[in-house]
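Quick note —
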Amino acid sequence: MNHPAKKVIPIQVSDDELVSLYQSSKKIYPRSVTGRFTNWRWAFVWLTQLVFYGLPWIQWGERQMVLFDLEARRFYIFGLVLYPQDFIYLTGLLVISALSLFLFTAVAGRLWCGYACPQTVYTEIFLWIERQIEGDRSARMRLDDDQFSLEKLVKKWYKHLVWLGFSIWTGFTFVGYFTPIRELGMEFFTTRMTSWEVFWVLFYGFATYGNAGFMREQVCKYMCPYARFQSAMFDQDTLIVSYEEARGEPRGKRTKVDAAATTGDCIDCTLCVQVCPTGIDIRNGLQYECIGCGACVDVCDTVMDKVGLPRGLVRYDTQRAVQSGHRESIWSHILRPRVLVYSAILGVLSLAMVVSLGLRKPMKVDIVRDRATLARITEHGMLQNVYQLQLMNASEDAHTYTISVRGLDQIELHKNAEFEVGPTQSRWVVLQVNIPYGSAASGSHKIWFDIQLKDSDVKVSESSVFLVPR
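Predicted structure written out below.
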């Protein structure tokens, strides 16, 4: 059956109309704000940076307190000396960190993002530098809009020079966790830094300069994966930055309490938008760009005080409480099943980590059979296997280790095995293990090496195999 052809009507498109598929981002000029949550944020800025910049300079005995010596494959953390074989502790630390993030998110949303994330902390520092040099929000906006001038050139260059200096110092401190920072400082002043040290100082420095100076909120909005899956850890009882729509709408200008007012408590001053580091309007509801810093809470409380209205129009609260209009005790949100389960698991893992570190023996042993010599008969009629043992001293004192072997009848070491290993050092030793020829059937037999700390009860047992040829 033939269908009649449909008439095609061409669409007229104006040549002057340009449709962009990509929206260019506008620069955000966060307004300075004061308040309790701002104070908390700055407290974490000081705490994290004092730890980061100060820790490498603190000595523990004759060494740096925290040092990850990749070349020597030793990690010094306070009184601990860890080897690559202690990788299980890093795994445990990562698991504890992940569970802590889940716990904090379940309780109060993006606490990590708003107060302790390096991106937030360094952005806050860079914004402070920018305010000191270029002025407040309106002054910075005017400066960017002004035509080129000497004042603009001086302020912009001065700001970027300070940013670069701070960033390079940050990169230097970062490398100081992997190269003793005092030696690194001497290498810097004598221009003897290695190419890798120079690379990582510049790489980490320019990463800080770019992320905190230019990208800022773009990192949180587009690069950080946490913003994408945070909702999976939220529920109706999670404390988040919330706007009480029932109380605030409809918005309208007002300067004092008016019992007959037909508008809500929100005076539509837009200060909550101006102080937001990601440039969102919290009055539009929960958005993935919100990092939970509480800046909008501080500024809104200040405005409410000025117009004589109760605080809390924007506040940390749960979706359940905002929708119902009833405020509940904060403990009722914290002490709930999900939070208690996270807390219990986190407590058990943390306790296990501490106990494991406390019971950790101050030595490590690796055993490798000498594959070049599987088995041989000695001149005394003994069957001999050769082994290589790596003795690792995980303490900061020199120790002597005695080694014995067991697992087969009349098995013995060719020579008495007693070795001294220096503090935080490792040593490879060769051991020759003998049995009377014909005393064991052909095949592979399991044996054990017992390594004991001399004049101590500390002992480690490691297994291997003794090969008897056909």
